[in-house]
C-alpha cells in the first residue's frame, strides 16, 4: 500500500466486528419419505443454507435421528430414496452426487455427474439405475448404483437450458424442460426423443415436477397440475392452482391426493375424477408441498393407521387420516439454517438484511439488536427506501414489498401488510436489484424472467396517510429502454434518471447486444435522451455490466464496472477520471451490482471486483478493507460500513 495517503491506510479502519446475527430460515426445497432397515418411517429434509443441512427424522413424530451438512451446497432440489437403501442427493453448484447411508449415518460424494453443475431432480428406474435432470444444457444423466458408473444421456432439447423434472416408467424417461415449457419422452434403449404436447408448450415457464402412477403422467408446471395418459400422450385434465400429487393410496380406491388453494383434493386413477376431500388447517393453508407419501405410524395418535404424510417448504409436516378426515401436526426437530445474505440497506437507524432464498432481518444500527425477523419473506434482491418506508424488491416476479418500521409487523401478500406487496412490477420482470429514490419517487431497475431479454425501469409513487399507510401506490414501467438489456444501476438528479445496464437477461438465454451502456432518462419527456458505451482506459474486454451508479459530492456521476471505478460528466457522459483497481474480466455475477455508497468522511465505499474497498474520489487512491470476498454492503447513518461474508454480517468503523 505504499504511496497511499495515510488516511486510507487499512489500519485506520479498525477491526471488523461480527455484528447482528445471520438471517436464519427453515426453508426446504426438497423432502423424501422412506423406511429404514429397521422398519422405521424416515423423513428426510434438506434445509437451505451455507452449507445446506440434511436432516433424517422419525416421520411419525418428527424426532431427530441425524443431521449432517452437505458440502459445497446452498440449496438442494434433488433427492431420491433408492432401492439400495441409500438416499441420493444432487448438488446445486458442482454437479456432485452425494449418497447418504442411514445405517452408518454417513454422507459421501460418489462423483460429479457429466452433464451439468445443477441437479434439479432425481428418480430411480429399473435395474439399479438412477437418473438426474440438470442445468445448463437440459441434459439427463444415468448413475448405476451397482457399478458407480455415470452415463451422459444427452441434451433433451436443443436451445433449452433446463431439464427440471424427471420421471422413469419402463423403457421411458420423461423430462420437463425450461425456460420454455416442453415435455420430452426419451427411449432409454434407442435414445429417441419425442415431444409430448402439453398446454402452453413453448411458452415461458418450467415443468417443475413429474411422476407416473397407474399409466398416467402427472406434471406440475407454473402452478398447474396436468394429467396426461402415458400411452397416448392425451391430455386428460389440467387443474389450476394445484401442486404436486401424492402416490396412490395403498388401500381402497386408487386415489392420489394434491393441494389446491387451501384444500386437499383427491384424483381417482380409474375414473379420471377429482373431488374435494378436506380443508387444510390454518397453519397449513399456505403450504407448498415438497413431498407426499403413505405410511403407517408405529406410535402416536394415528398409530396403526394408513395415513398420508406431507411436508411443506418451511418444514410444515402433517399426517392425514382419510378414514376420519383428520390432520395431525408433526413438529420436526430441525433448526433454521443461516443463509447467504443477498441484500443490505441502511437508513433511518436500521439495517435491512435479506436472505437467499428467503428471509428478512431488520437490525438497530447502533446496537445490532434484532428488531424484526421474517423467515418467509420472498428472496430480497435489492432494498431501498422512499419517505419513511423501506421497499424490498423480491424474486420471483419483481414484487415490491413496502415496510414501515413504526407500524406493527404483518407480512402479507397484499398492500395492507407490513411488509405488504405494494407493487408487482410485471411486464415479464423478475429480479429488482437496482433501487433508488428522489423527488418523492422510487426508481427500480430489473432483470426479466427466465429465457427472455429486456429488463425495465419502473417508477413508483405513493400517497400516504398520517400513520405511514400507503393510500395509493402507482407504478409506471418502461421495458426494453435499452434494447435487450437489463437495468442494474440507477442514480437520480434534477429530473433525470441515470442508468447502467447489463447485457444479461434472465437465466437460460444468451445476451444479444455487444456491450452494456450508460443512459439518461428524462422523466418529463419519458424517454431516453442519451446513451453511450464508455471507452474506459485500461479495459480491453467488452463491457458486460455498468452499475452501481451514484452522484458524488463533486457533482460527477460515479460508476462501478467490475474491478474499475469511473467518474463521468453527467452532461456529456464522458469519462472524467477512471482507475482499474482490480483486474476487470467480468467473470462474476451478471446480475448483482457492484455497490457504491458514500461515507460521512467523503470516501466512496464499494464492492469493486467483489472486494470491500474505500476510494478517495479526489486522488482515486484505494484500499481494500478486508481480505474476504464481499458481494453486499451498505453504509449507515453515522458512516459505519456494514457488509456480509456469506451468512455472516459485519460492521467496520473508521477510527478517529
From TrEMBL:
SUPFAM superfamilies for the chain: Quinoprotein alcohol dehydrogenase-like, Soluble quinoprotein glucose dehydrogenase
Residues spanning the signal sequence: none
Record-linked InterPro entries: Quinoprot_gluc/sorb_DH_b-prop, Quinoprotein_ADH-like_sf, WD40/YVTN_repeat-like_dom_sf
Protein name per the record: PQQ-binding-like beta-propeller repeat protein
Lineage, highest ranks first: Bacteria, Bacillati, Bacillota, Bacilli, Bacillales
Amino acid at each position: 500500500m505504499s504511496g497511499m495517503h495515510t488516511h486510507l491506510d487499512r489500519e485506520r479502519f479498525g477491526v471488523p466486528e461480527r455484528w447482528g446475527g445471520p438471517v436464519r430460515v427453515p426453508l426446504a426445497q426438497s423432502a423424501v419419505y422412506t423406511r429404514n432397515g429397521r422398519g422405521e418411517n424416515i423423513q428426510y429434509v434438506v434445509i437451505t443454507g451455507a452449507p445446506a443441512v440434511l436432516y433424517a427424522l422419525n416421520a411419525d413424530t418428527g424426532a431427530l435421528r441425524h443431521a449432517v451438512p452437505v458440502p459445497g451446497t446452498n440449496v438442494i432440489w434433488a433427492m431420491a430414496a433408492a432401492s439400495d437403501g441409500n438416499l441420493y442427493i444432487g448438488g446445486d453448484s458442482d454437479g456432485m452426487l452425494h449418497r447418504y447411508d442411514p445405517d452408518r449415518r454417513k454422507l459421501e460424494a460418489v462423483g460429479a455427474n457429466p452433464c451439468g453443475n445443477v441437479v434439479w431432480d432425481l428418480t430411480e428406474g429399473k435395474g439399479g439405475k438412477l437418473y438426474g435432470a440438470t442445468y445448463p444444457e437440459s441434459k439427463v444423466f444415468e448413475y448405476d448404483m451397482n457399478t458407480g458408473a455415470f452415463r451422459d444421456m444427452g441434451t433433451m432439447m436443443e436451445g433449452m437450458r433446463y431439464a427440471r423434472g424427471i420421471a422413469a416408467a419402463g423403457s421411458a424417461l420423461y423430462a420437463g424442460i425450461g425456460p420454455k415449457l416442453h415435455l420430452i419422452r426419451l427411449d432409454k434403449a434407442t435414445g429417441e426423443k419425442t415431444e409430448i404436447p402439453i398446454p402452453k408448450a413453448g411458452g415461458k415457464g418450467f415443468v417443475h415436477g413429474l411422476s407416473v402412477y397407474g399409466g398416467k403422467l402427472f406434471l406440475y408446471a407454473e402452478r398447474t397440475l396436468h394429467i396426461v395418459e402415458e400411452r397416448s400422450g392425451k391430455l386428460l385434465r389440467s387443474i389450476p392452482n394445484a401442486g404436486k400429487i401424492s402416490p396412490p393410496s395403498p388401500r381402497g380406491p386408487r386415489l392420489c391426493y394434491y393441494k389446491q388453494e387451501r384444500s386437499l383434493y383427491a384424483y381417482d386413477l380409474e375414473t379420471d375424477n377429482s373431488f374435494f376431500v378436506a380443508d387444510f388447517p390454518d397453519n397449513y393453508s399456505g403450504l407448498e408441498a415438497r413431498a407426499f407419501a403413505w405410511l403407517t405410524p408405529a406410535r402416536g395418535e394415528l398409530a396403526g393407521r394408513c395415513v398420508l404424510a406431507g411436508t411443506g417448504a418451511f418444514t410444515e409436516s402433517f399426517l392425514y387420516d382419510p378414514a376420519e378426515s383428520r390432520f395431525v401436526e408433526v413438529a420436526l426437530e430441525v433448526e433454521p439454517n443461516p443463509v447467504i445474505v443477498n441484500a443490505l440497506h441502511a437508513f433511518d437507524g436500521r439495517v435491512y438484511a435479506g436472505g437467499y432464498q428467503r428471509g428478512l432481518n431488520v437490525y438497530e444500527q447502533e446496537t445490532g439488536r434484532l428488531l424484526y425477523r421474517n423467515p418467509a419473506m420472498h428472496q430480497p434482491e435489492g432494498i431501498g427506501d422512499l419517505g419513511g418506508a423501506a421497499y424490498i424488491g423480491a424474486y420471483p416476479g419483481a414484487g415490491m414489498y413496502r415496510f414501515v418500521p413504526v407500524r406493527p409487523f404483518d407480512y402479507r401478500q397484499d398492500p395492507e401488510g407490513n411488509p405488504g406487496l405494494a407493487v408487482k412490477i410485471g411486464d415479464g420482470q423478475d429480479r429488482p436489484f437496482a433501487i433508488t429514490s428522489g423527488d418523492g419517487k422510487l426508481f427500480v431497475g430489473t432483470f426479466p424472467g427466465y429465457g427472455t431479454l429486456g429488463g425495465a425501469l419502473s417508477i413508483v409513487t405513493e400517497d400516504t396517510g398520517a400513520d405511514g399507510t400507503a393510500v395509493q401506490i402507482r407504478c409506471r414501467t418502461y421495458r426494453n429502454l435499452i434494447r435487450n438489456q437489463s437495468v442494474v444501476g440507477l442514480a437520480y438528479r434534477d429530473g433525470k434518471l441515470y442508468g447502467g445496464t447489463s447485457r444479461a437477461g434472465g437465466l437460460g438465454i444468451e445476451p444479444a447486444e455487444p456491450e452494456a451502456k450508460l443512459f439518461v432518462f428524462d422523466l418529463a419527456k419519458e424517454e431516453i435522451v442519451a446513451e453511450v458505451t464508455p471507452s474506459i482506459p485500461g479495459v480491453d474486454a467488452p463491457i458486460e455490466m455498468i452499475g452501481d451508479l451514484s452522484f458524488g459530492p463533486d457533482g460527477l456521476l460515479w460508476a462501478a464496472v467490475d474491478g474499475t471505478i469511473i467518474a463521468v460528466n453527467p452532461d456529456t457522459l464522458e469519462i472524467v477520471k477512471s482507475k482499474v483497481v482490480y483486474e476487470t474480466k467480468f467473470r462474476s455475477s451478471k446480475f448483482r451490482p457492484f455497490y457504491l455508497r458514500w461515507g460521512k468522511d467523503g470516501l466512496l465505499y464499494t464492492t469493486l471486483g467483489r472486494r470491500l474497498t474505500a476510494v478517495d474520489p479526489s486522488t482515486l487512491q484505494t484500499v481494500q478493507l478486508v481480505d474476504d470476498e464481499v458481494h453486499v454492503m451498505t453504509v449507515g447513518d453515522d458512516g459505519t460500513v456494514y457488509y456480509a461474508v456469506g451468512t455472516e454480517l459485519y460492521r467496520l468503523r473508521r477510527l478517529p
